[in-house]
Amino acid sequence: MLWTANSKFLFGTHAVIFDVEGRVLLQRHTYRKRYPWGLPGGWVRRPESPHEALRREVSEETGLQISVGPLVAVQAARRDAAIVVSYLCTASGQPRTSPETSEVGFFALDSLPKPLAPDQIATIELAARFRRDLEATLRAGDFWGPCLAGDTDEHY
User: Per the domain annotation, does 153 fall within a domain?
Assistant: First the structure.
């Protein structure tokens, strides 16, 4: 009854990954026409958690293995009837292209490739501020900081 009486929507994830120089990982999608450049990520499948989906999607699209960190944004995409959650992530490995991506690389925040969707630009800017604040907190010796950065699929 609940299933038929309620709206259906897609549930997506994005990874915001910075390198040691503070550049953000972006990829040029082969299937997106209006905004081909974007953050790695994709749709959550049943019965995946958002973290599981994000690790799978980033690995498929870029070859990177990630650790999922704190949530930095939740956005509603009305046109697509979707909710997209974005996490600050760390990665290991060297990025590579895939059948879904024709280019992948790290870009300075002041020279992001175009066209890049405005909502993703906002997510990148928010994640960059969050990252700076988190690093400052950890440098100051705040013992709560490490609790914010852990990768977990635990349900609360």
Answer: no
Per-residue pLDDT tens for 13-38? Answer: 999 999 999 999 999 999 989 999 99
- 73-118 pLDDT per residue, tens: 999 877 778 899 999 999 999 999 999 999 999 999 999 999 999 9
Residue 92's domain comprises 7-141
Residue type, 22: G
Q: Identify the CATH number of the domain in which residue 24 sits.
A: 3.90.79.10
For 41: left if phi > 0, alpha if psi spans -120 to 50, otherwise beta; the answer is left
Kindly state whether residue 26 falls inside one of the protein's structural domains. Answer: yes
| Number of folded domains that form the chain | 1
Contact between 61 and 42 under an 8 Å Cβ cutoff? The reply is yes
pTM for this structure? 0.86
